[in-house]
Amino acid sequence: MTDAPHQNVPPVPAGPARDGSADAAAHRAPAHAPVSAHDPVPVHAPVAEGTGAAPAVIGGKTAISEQAVAKVAAIAARSVAGVYALGSGSGRALGAVRDAVGASSATQGVHVEVGETEVAVDVTLVAVYGTPLTRIADNVRAAVYSAVESLVGLRVVEVNVDVNDVQIPGAAEGRPDKPKPGSAPA
């Protein structure tokens, strides 16, 4: 992954400069100036009338864990219509055991690789029967891109979607509808 910056500085409200000079307006940050993960971000502090003081700059480094990014991606993927569950069959079975003992994996079915400014996401899911699988995959991809870029602030380089299974409505999970032995077909 490359480390090209992809963060935006919040826009500065337009209007006349507080000290009334046109020169002060020229020193405002552009609305969408790229900032690297290590550059200080301008913080617009109140400026005393007539002082012309520049806004304060707060420096520091922000580290966002893979777990945090994976949770954001998982929540976004689960919100898409037609997604029954995240993860593979065996992963969901293990998740059911985890849920039964009180431990849950909110990131089941999602794997992320996080760089300084970019992230790649892999999503494994089970779709609901009746919705076109490519539409579900495209919608999951769009939801994950949007959520990760807006909430985490990292540029998403790819979202790979693996539709692992299809859930048939009304069927017990893991067991197709089969007549019971000794029962007459309907």
* Largest sheet entry: 4 strands, mixed
Low-confidence stretches: 2-10, 12-36, 175-180
Q: Helix count, per DSSP?
A: 4
Amino- and carboxy-terminal Cα gap: 57 Å
Residue-averaged pLDDT, rounded?
A: 73
What oligomeric state do the depicted chains represent?
A: single chain
* SS content category: alpha+beta
| Computed Rg | 24 Å
What is the succession of H and E elements?
HEEHEHEEHE
Range of strand content:
15-25%
Described by the principal axes of the CA atoms, the overall outline is elongated
Say how many strands there are. 6
Helical content class: 25-40%
In brief, what are we looking at here?
The chain has 186 residues and is α+β, with helices and mostly antiparallel strands. Helices cover 27% and strands 20% of the residues.
Could you describe the 3D structure shown?
By secondary structure, this protein is α+β, with helices and mostly antiparallel strands. Helix content is 27%, strand content 20%. It is built from 4 helices and 6 strands. It has helices at residues 22-26, 66-78, 89-100, 133-152; strands spanning 41-42, 57-58, 83-86, 110-114, 118-128, 155-167. The strands form 2 sheets. Strands 3, 4, 5 and 6 form a 4-stranded mixed β-sheet that branches. It has a two-stranded antiparallel sheet with strand order 1-2. The longest helix has 20 residues, at 133-152. The protein is elongated and about 70 Å long. The N and C termini lie far apart (57 Å). Residues 2-10, 12-36 and 175-180 have low confidence and may be disordered.
